[in-house]
Amino acid sequence: MQDKIQKASILLDALPYIKKFAKQTIVIKYGGAAQINPKLKDEFARDIVLLYLVGIRIIIVHGGGKSINNVLDKLKIESHFVDGLRVTDEKAMEVVEMVLSGNVNKEITTLLNFNGAKAIGLSGKDANFIKAKTADGGKYGLVGDITQVNSEMLLQLINDGFIPVIAPIASGDDEKHPGYNINADLAASEIAKSVKAKKVIFLTDTIGVLDKDKNLLSKLKKDDIEKLKIDGTINGGMIPKVDACLKAIEGGVDDAHIIDGRIQHSIILELFTNEGIGTIIKK
Ligand SMILES: Nc1ncnc2c1ncn2[C@@H]1O[C@H](COP(=O)(O)OP(=O)(O)OP(=O)(O)O)[C@@H](O)[C@H]1O
Ligand SMILES: [Mg+2]
Q1: Can you say how many angstroms the Cα of residue 188 is from the centroid of all Cα atoms in its chain?
Q2: Integer CA distances (angstroms), 254 to 25, 39, 190, 237, 273, in order
Q3: Where are the domains of the chain?
Q4: Which residue's CA is the closest to the ligand 1 atom numbered 21?
Q5: Averaged in consecutive runs of 10 residues, what is the pLDDT profile of the chain (283 residues)?
Q6: Residues enclosing ligand 1, CB less than 6 A?
Q7: For residue range 161-200, what is the model confidence (pLDDT) as tens digits?
Q8: Contact 130/124 with Cβ under 8 angstroms?
Q9: For residue 205, which ligand has an atom nearest its CA?
Q10: How far apart are CA 105 and CA 166, in angstroms?
């Protein structure tokens, strides 16, 4: 009996947080690096469904860097990263779209639906809801900078009880354009801004942003981030992630979190406990 009472009391501990976040919109970036093992993927889906069923409006934006690398390797297509962004030519773009919009998107959507949500998979090409232009004069090939997100469509979907699951690809300038490869972190922040989300949470494969001695930095401000980027402590895929956090909070989102997707139930721990587990960047 005591066990059961304790279980009930643990559930009730979440009540203040449920009250705080119910009806709020939270954008979750599910990094490719965090999509590692099947058990964790299933737990991720169940955590999301729990948030959804207590009334939090959820939007998922996913990456898929590792899956894209696997297929590019198999097809012997070379690609490399500059400033944490994948330089994307037309051949690589075909694979990016195939893997992100095809495999990864449908896998996440399926898992959510089988766990009790109404998830709907989309890319920015659907209803042209994400538009972009060539980033940095073409330095990264078909990598795009988002110019517009149609929040109306997303809001309609979440108002109707759907969880949009978004592959970060934007539609191009004409029907022949292969589309733009958008860094998923930057897509998540633009989407969070456009729907006036309360939070954006990045699930990745590190405990948060680390300092040069590999210790967790649990809180960061803009100035700290600039310094860490300049001295190289923040590098690779962490560069677009912290940039995305700053863009989100400057665009009106309350908090941006970078948390460890390899830890079981990391989203629940971050949202429903006082301490939090990763790095938080606040307005
Ligand atoms: N200061 C830092 N602290 C923590 N991680 C860092 C830092 N600098 C660079 N990184 C790297 O950033 C990586 C996370 O970015 P990465 O792009 O690889 O993952 P992701 O964004 O979660 O996945 P995807 O790009 O597939 O969506 C970490 O695995 C780490 O190697
Ligand atoms: Mg990344």
Answers
A1: 5
A2: 11, 31, 14, 23, 17
A3: 24-282
A4: 31
A5: 88 92 97 85 96 97 94 94 92 97 96 97 97 95 96 96 98 93 97 98 96 97 96 95 97 97 93 90 88
A6: 31-34, 63-65, 184-185, 204-206, 209-210, 233-238, 241
A7: 999 999 999 999 889 999 999 999 999 999 999 999 999 9
A8: yes
A9: 1
A10: 7
CA–CA distance, 167 with 146 (Å, rounded to integer)? 13
- Rounded to whole angstroms, the Cα distance separating 39 from 143 reads 32
Helix (H, G, I), strand (E, B) or coil at 63: coil
Counting from 1 in the atom list of ligand 1, the atom nearest the Cα of 66 is: 26
The amino acid sitting at 152 is E
SS3 (DSSP) at 37: coil
Superfamily in which the 24-282 domain is placed by CATH: Acetylglutamate kinase-like (3.40.1160.10)
| Residue 37: predicted pLDDT | 86
Residue 30 alpha carbon to ligand 2 centre in Å: 10
Overall residue count recorded for the chain in this entry? 283
Helix (DSSP H) and strand (DSSP E) numbers for the chain: 11, 14
How far apart are the CA of 15 and the centre of ligand 1, in A?
33
Nearest-CA residue for ligand 1 atom 4 is 209
Which of 205, 215, 226, 243 gets mutated to test ligand 1 (max ligand atoms within 8 A of its CB)?
205
Could you tell which of 206, 225, 228 is best to mutate to test the pocket of ligand 1, judged by most ligand atoms within 8 Å of the CB? Answer: 206
Whole-prediction pTM value? 0.95
Question: How far, CA to CA in Å, does 214 sit from each of 33, 231, 236?
Answer: 18, 14, 15
For 190-211, the three-class secondary structure string (H helix, E strand, C coil) is HHHHHCCCCEEEEEECCCCCEC
Dihedral Cα 130, 255, 205, 19, nearest 10 deg: -100
